[in-house]
Specification:
Radius of gyration: 19 Å
Helix content: 55-70%
CATH class: Mainly Alpha
Largest sheet: none
CATH architecture: Up-down Bundle
Shape: globular
Number of strands: 0
Structural class: mainly alpha
Strand content: under 5%
CATH topology: Rhopdopsin 7-helix transmembrane proteins
Number of domains: 1
Order of helices and strands: HHHHHHHHH
Distance between the termini: 53 Å
Number of helices: 9
């Protein structure tokens, strides 16, 4: 039962993320681009959670080839959250070439997994290694730095939009997004503590924490809680989507 319960929670998070993420592609209220971006966020988060589930259950050790399946999108998640928030506030925003700087590492991560999946000769024998920016200790550091950084960007847009509206009370959309951002920071803190311990241990060869069942489960569940929080927000938007949009912001 102690091992079965985390598996069930992870499976529930995967199912919820894939289902709600898929529904966002069919959502008609709100901005189409913001809906698609959030759908991508949930689906990529669900697939990344599947990778963590395989790690927790020992499948990556028993079947090393599964480690290189292109379903790991950790570097995409904070970037997609940022653009969902930005476009939700400013639906008429037009993507610029300068926005590509945000997608360099996420696209590189996807290309990396596609290459090592299709061409096994390029794989590292340990799978992940410290200096790999797409799957390893450095990737974890980028992931941990990316979440608070992009949440900060979202908060700055939230404050700017609130000043522009000149209202004492927040519109529904801004209120829900503020709650979303607060929850993300809280849950990423737990993930950061665990990943930071893994980062230091892997760097200085103190221990291979990912080889410990308790650690793999704790890290996977901390990510699970974050994913479930994203699903809760997504479910609220789907149910009350028309009410959430409120006044249409102006282009920036």
């Amino acid at each position: 039962m102690p091992i079965l319960l985390p598996k069930l929670i992870m499976l529930a998070a995967i199912a919820a993320a894939l289902l709600i993420g898929g529904l966002f592609f069919r959502k008609r209220s709100g901005d189409r681009r913001a809906n698609v971006i959030y759908g991508m966020l949930l689906i990529m988060g669900g697939l990344t959670q599947l990778h963590f589930l395989w790690d927790f259950t020992g499948n990556l050790e028993a079947h090393p080839n599964m480690r290189f399946w292109p379903i790991y999108f950790s570097l995409w998640l904070p970037v997609l959250l940022f653009f969902h928030v930005k476009i939700s506030f400013y639906p008429q925003y037009v993507f610029r070439w300068s926005d590509l700087k945000h997608f360099g590492l996420p696209i590189g991560q996807t290309i990396y997994f596609l290459v090592v999946w299709l061409f096994p000769e390029y794989r590292h024998e340990a799978g992940r290694y410290f200096y790999n920016p797409f799957y390893g200790g450095l990737e974890q550091a980028l992931f941990l730095a990316g979440w608070p950084l992009y949440v900060l960007f979202c908060v700055l847009y939230l404050r700017r939009r609130r000043r522009q509206l000149k209202r004492r009370s927040l519109p529904r959309l801004l209120w829900y997004i503020r709650k979303l951002l607060k929850g993300c920071l809280l849950f990423i803190l737990a993930y950061a503590i665990l990943s930071g311990a893994d980062f230091l241990a892997y760097k200085y060869h103190l221990a291979d924490l990912r080889g410990q069942v308790w650690y793999a489960g704790a890290q996977a569940l901390s990510f699970t809680v974050l994913l479930l929080w994203l699903c809760i927000y997504g479910g609220q938007v789907l149910v009350w989507g028309r009410k959430l949009m409120g006044a249409r912001p102006q282009v920036q």
